[in-house]
Design brief:
It is found in: Cytoplasm. InterPro entries: KH_dom-like_a/b (IPR015946), KH_NusA_2nd (IPR058582), KH_sf_prok-type (IPR009019), NA-bd_OB-fold (IPR012340), NusA_N_sf (IPR036555), S1_domain (IPR003029), TF_NusA (IPR010213), TF_NusA_bacterial (IPR030842). By secondary structure, the protein is α+β, with helices and mostly antiparallel strands. It folds into 3 domains: about 130 residues, 2-Layer Sandwich (N Utilization Substance Protein A, Chain:P, domain 4); about 70 residues, Nucleic acid-binding proteins (OB fold (Dihydrolipoamide Acetyltransferase, E2P), Beta Barrel); about 160 residues, GMP Synthetase, Chain A, domain 3. The chain has 12 helices and 16 strands. Helix 2 packs across helix 4, helix 5 runs antiparallel to helix 8 and helix 9 runs antiparallel to helix 11. It starts with a helix and ends with a strand.
Length: about 375
């Protein structure tokens, strides 16, 4: 070791943020193991690295006793006082035992320790950087693919995007740029592991937050999201300012804002609906683009029976029940949809007694 080594540690401290003293303590601990392994000894030793010159010394530590039973661990009072006249019983005497060729072993050990600590520190920095981005959007580049995952280069780390978390419309190849949602960040023995998704409802929510300034500023709130990735989504929004239209803010002038999101999601259809404290109004809005005549709420069952015009029944239910299913997810209520004719037949309500409810929503294809 030398002054150059100490200066190199100081440079690492400046560049990597790893304390020089912590590195030196780690090297000293590692050198104790190296000394015992290379010189086949079981005695207690202490390794000292001079913080200014880099000079390394090894000291055997022996307890001062009246009668020596194990010379590797003990030293007599008389022998200890030849080293230092102030030693007394039960003191620990230190005797320098630095081997002649210990410098070579020390250099190898120090290099391994420093490399390992730098790697650990960099992993820690990466983990801390990405744990703050959990449930956020990141951009990356497709590096490779195996039978289960896409591996995405995020710059300092490679993230995992399971194939099950891809939208049906997603087709990526090596070198393609991918915008994904961070679902989980784990700190493992191999370093930080980051898991991504393209199907998570959080991706849609974050895209709106990035695209709509009113949402980013907190004027418009996203109250609920329901998504069948790659096909159709519904998002319920509410404005804290009565003068700001939440649906219009999300749609944007000539639909530009929402169209940007639709393009990012490869044509996924998006229904933007106004959230309401009134369950009747909220459920009616959630069934967009279908028109709703009446909503009857059953609080105890948390179920809403919805009556729609005859010609709107298939639209309200949607292909394979998708529209009704997403509306139920969005509102958290079970929804039973009936046509006017069915309602008249089952409940005896004449059509003239029904009036169409006002709905506030927009559907983007």
């Amino acid at each position: 070791m030398s002054m150059e080594f100490i200066e190199a540690l100081a440079e690492i401290e400046r560049e990597k943020g790893i304390s020089k003293d912590i590195l030196l303590e780690a090297i000293e601990a590692a050198l104790i193991s190296s000394y015992k392994r290379n010189f086949n000894t079981a005695q207690n030793v202490r390794v000292d690295i001079n913080r200014f010159t880099g000079v390394i010394k090894v000291y055997a530590r022996k307890t001062v006793v009246d009668e020596v039973l194990d010379p590797r661990l003990e030293i007599s009072v008389e022998a200890s006082r030849e080293i230092n006249p102030h030693y007394t019983l039960d003191d620990v005497a230190e005797i320098e035992v630095t081997p002649r060729d210990f410098g070579r072993i020390a250099a190898q050990t120090a290099k391994q320790v420093v490399t390992q600590r730098i790697r650990e520190a960099e992993r820690g920095l990466i983990y801390n950087a990405f744990i703050d981005k959990e449930e956020d959007i990141v951009n990356g580049i497709v590096q490779r693919q195996d039978v289960r995952n896409l591996f995405i280069d995020l710059g300092k780390v490679e993230a995992v995007l399971p194939l099950t978390e891809l939208m049906p419309t997603d087709k990526f190849k090596h070198g393609d740029r991918v915008k994904s949602f961070i679902t989980k960040v784990e700190n493992t023995t191999k370093g930080p592991q980051i898991f991504l998704s393209r199907t998570h409802p959080g991706l849609l929510k974050r895209l709106f937050e990035l695209e709509v300034p009113e949402i980013y500023d907190g004027v418009v709130e996203i109250r609920s999201v329901a998504r069948e990735a790659g096909f159709r989504s519904k998002i319920a929004v509410h404005s804290r300012n009565p003068e700001v239209d939440p649906v219009g803010s999300c749609v944007g002038q000539k639909g530009m804002r929402v169209q940007t999101i639709v393009t990012e999601l490869k044509g996924e259809k998006i229904d933007i609906v106004r959230w309401s404290e009134s369950v009747e109004e909220y459920v009616a809005n959630a069934l967009s683009p279908s028109k709703v005549i009446e909503v009857i709420v059953y609080e105890q069952e948390k179920m809403a029976r919805v009556i729609v015009p005859d010609y709107q029944l298939s639209l309200a239910i949607g292909i394979k029940g998708q529209n009704a299913r997403l509306a139920a997810k969005l509102t958290g209520w079970k929804i039973d949809i009936k046509s006017e004719s069915q309602a008249e037949q089952e409940y005896g309500r004449p059509k003239s007694a029904m009036s169409t409810m006002h709905q506030d929503s927009v559907s983007i294809d």
